[in-house]
Design a protein that fits this description.
The chain has helices at about 1-20, 150-155, 260-265; strands spanning about 20-30, 35-40, 45-50, 55-65, 70-85, 85-95, 95-115, 120-145, 160-170, 175-185, 190-200, 205-220, 225-235, 250-255, 275, 280, 285-295. The chain has about 300 residues and is mainly β. It has one domain (about 20-295). The two termini are about 30 Å apart. Keywords: Signal. This is Outer membrane protein beta-barrel domain-containing protein.
């Protein structure tokens, strides 16, 4: 027992003699690495897939690293992703419909990694990534033209249309992913250093629920004059009719939907239309970060 205690004490003393704590702050930009389908672009002649990842965009990170010795360290970080717009629906069919819908991530994440110094300047990180908060925000603008019969029934001139603008926030289950990075650090003095690193995120998010947070529909004349403002609003959503154009303020995403539930949704206006099959959306990315590190002195020998 005494030998074991002596050995453990020796290891702790040896570790403490090399121990060093440092903090860093960085910013950067990441590009999509998943390339999964997010939506479509439709014209009168064709329909094209839009691929990408919600992980694309700018980010900021704050990181704390504790080095056990000159080579190995443990790293904890938190960050925020301000995602770039991703086209989920772009439709342009003159006199029928025009849709411009984009979605973007607004997400907070955290990671726990192991750091290894290959040389005095080059290092690598590998660890686990977790999204801890935020949302995927969809911003939709939909211009739908009335048929001549519909316009006549509402005493509107031919060419009139409804223009709907709304925002829907999507939330997901907490996912677990992978993070890896290779970087180069350049010491400015004993305490400060600059670094640049290439970083990879491998992660997907499973949708849990969504909520419409803004909604407005205007009736517009052919010359652009608003005939009826606020025809529909967040407090006065279109009455469900059992069709694909229904609007529901909240939606829950589930792993299983029975055939009876699916048939009821397609046929009965008063059935539960607030459930949809869940899906995974990509957040994977490859980016470049630039930052500054402060090394606390006093513990390194």
């Amino acid at each position: 027992m005494k030998q074991l205690i002596t050995a453990v004490a020796a290891i702790l003393v040896s570790t403490a003699s090399f121990a060093q704590f440092q903090v860093s702050a960085s910013t950067g930009y990441a590009m999509s690495s998943a390339g999964m389908q997010l939506g479509t672009t439709t014209t009168t002649t064709s329909t094209e897939n839009n691929c990408g990842s919600y992980g694309e965009g700018s980010n900021v990170q704050i990181r704390g690293t504790y080095f056990l010795n000159e080579k190995f360290g443990l790293d904890l970080s938190v960050g925020y992703l301000h995602g770039a717009d991703q086209t989920i629906n772009k439709t342009s069919i003159p006199t029928v419909a025009e849709v411009n819908a984009v979605a973007r991530a607004r997400a907070f994440g955290a990671s726990a990694s192991m750091v290894y110094n290959f040389t005095e300047n080059f290092y690598g990180r590998i660890g686990a990534l977790l999204k801890i908060g935020g949302k995927t925000e969809a911003v939709i603008s939909n211009k739908s033209y009335f048929t001549d019969a519909q316009a006549s029934a509402q005493n509107l001139p031919s060419g009139s249309y409804s223009e709907t603008n709304y925002v829907e926030d999507y939330h997901g289950h907490f996912p677990l992913g992978f993070v890896g990075a290779l970087g180069y650090s350049f010491d400015l003095d004993e305490n400060f250093a600059l670094f640049v690193e290439a970083e990879y995120y491998g992660i997907s998010l499973k949708r849990k629920d969504s909520e419409i947070t803004e909604f407005n529909t205007d009736i517009v004349l052919p010359d652009g004059t608003v005939a009826v403002a606020g025809f529909y609003s967040l407090d006065n959503l279109p009455t469900p009719t059992g069709s694909a154009t229904d609007v529901y303020r909240t939606t829950t995403y589930v792993d299983e939907l029975s055939h009876a539930e699916a048939a009821a949704q397609a046929q009965a206006p008063d059935s539960d239309h607030t459930k949809k099959l869940s899906q995974k959306v990509p957040y994977s990315s490859f980016g470049l970060n630039f930052g500054v590190t402060y090394k606390f002195s006093g513990s390194k020998k």
